[in-house]
Each structure stands twice: as structure tokens, then as C-alpha cells.
Automatic annotation (TrEMBL):
Quaternary organization: Binds to RNA polymerase II.
Gene3D superfamilies according to UniProt: P-loop containing nucleotide triphosphate hydrolases
Entry EC number(s): 3.6.5.-
Protein name: GPN-loop GTPase
Amino acid sequence: MANTVLIVLGMAGSGKTVFCHRLYSWLSEKNLRLNKDTGLNDAVFGANLDPASIATKMPLHYDIREHVSVADLMEQKRLGPNGAILTALNLFVAQIDTFVKQIEEAAPTYTVIDTPGQIEMFTTSVSGQILTKCLSGAPNTEVKLLYVLDGESAQNPQCFVSNMLFATSIFYRFKEPLLLIVNKSDIEGSQKIRAWTSDFSLFTDDLTTTDFITPTLRSMALWTEEFYSAFKLYYVSSLTSSGKTELLAVL
């Protein structure tokens, strides 16, 4: 049975963790195979790889917090929060075979992986690449990266450019299929992002009205337009489930 691994990435505040929960629920509607011992749905494997997460939403087959403690690492190794998260991820990938085996034993149709809100801890570290390569190299497995944008903060042109630069970096670093998810699309004003991505002149008009506009920012905006114009953006709401059908159709 083929397994589609969905690695969900997003900046802090993007609603990534809630989106993971909703995505898990949406996928479970048509993919249900309850494990009588755990009570979990083995058709959709949920994994939390954010060691600093206080509370997770989706049902979990694997939780990195059960294997490593950020608080203990900070105390024992005298690390800061980010250093402890990075160390926790490195310790995790040192045992990556165990994680991959656990997924294979569950034989899911989908695997949903929530990653740290400190996105650079995963995207710029070796641990993120090791995880992705190990999963993509597993038999009958396809990896897709889901980059979640905050549909509220991304209404700021500078924030939108920043997100697109991050998404570009992720795409070329991991070299896996990438889906751009505009979350919180039910929030007033999110239609502005739709307009920007369909007509670049509208974006440049709004960009010129910002307080901080430089030739460099203009150049970056033009460069990122060449990137995101090659992708379809998926507008979803974790609150109302709008956009669910369109997203699930490509997963």
C-alpha cells in the first residue's frame, strides 16, 4: 500500500498545528482503519516532531516529546531554547530507522508530520534533510511538503515576500513536491492575496504604499513572483474547512 507523507511546515503563528489536526481529520473521513489496541486510526499516521510543543491537536502515533525533553536538554547541556530544539531533532534522526519502521508497521495511506514552529530548526538543519531523504527513500512512499502561510499576516506585502522567499528556499533545498497553503482564508482581507497572485501589478501597487520600500525589495518581489506563479496556492480555513475539497484532491 502506498504511503503519502505530508510534512507540514510554517512560521510560528501560521496556524500550522491546528491545520495539521484538521488535515488529519479530513483525511480520516475516507481513510479509516482503527487499531483495536491503541484506538488510533492506522490509515492516517500522525507524528509530532516539535519537541517544544506545549499541546498538540491531532492524534499521535509518534510524539518526539516522549523520547527527548527540551527542558532537560536546556538544563543538562546548558543550551538555549533553539539549541535544545536543534539538539532534540539531531537525537531524533540518530534513531530515524525506528521511526521509519514504526510507520511501515502501521502501513498508513497518509502520514501527517507536524514540525517545529521555529521553522529554521527543521528547514536549515541536517536533521530535516535526513528525515526527508529517509522517508522518500522508503518503499512505496511519496513525500510532499506543505508550506503553510498565515492568511492574516501575509496580507502585508513585506510579509508575503518573506514567506515566498522561505518557500523558495525550502523547495530548492529539499527537492520534493511543494504545496503552498494559505491558511486562515476565512479572515477578512485574505482575498487580497488571491488578487496579488493572479495579477502582479496589483501586488506592486500595494508594495509601493508600504513604509519600507527599496529597489532590493522590488527585485525580491519580482523574483518570488516567478517562483509562486509556477505553483497553485491552496486557500483553506482550519476553522470553517473551506478549501478542503480542492486540497484533498491533490494529496
